[in-house]
Write a structure and sequence with these properties.
alpha+beta; Histidine-containing Protein, Chain: A; 3 helices; sugar transport; HPr-like; HPr-like_sf; PTS sugar transporter; transport
């Protein structure tokens, strides 16, 4: 498994930082703060499926934006509600 491209990682982080909500990816037993570019570089792979947890005042908008970025870079994500 190889790491996701640098462009994907940067865009995911930049998109997350536009929102006030907490945005966390879960992969197996790891939880990654999507606003942390270092966490993404060490964890985000191009061949995994991630669970996306978004909580906060702009969660709906943040969720849509994050799903769009993941799809743009062919990364698999499942939205976890609640």
């Amino acid at each position: 498994m190889s790491s996701a491209s640098n462009a994907a990682i940067v865009e995911v982080s930049q998109t997350a930082n536009k929102f006030r909500s907490s945005i966390v990816l879960q992969y197996e037993n790891k939880f990654i703060d999507v606003k942390s570019i270092l966490g993404l570089f060490t964890t985000l792979l191009d061949s995994g499926t991630y669970d996306l947890h978004v909580h906060g005042p702009d969660a709906d908008e943040a969720t849509k934006a994050m799903v769009d970025v993941f799809q743009k870079h062919n990364l698999k994500v499942n939205v976890v509600n609640g």
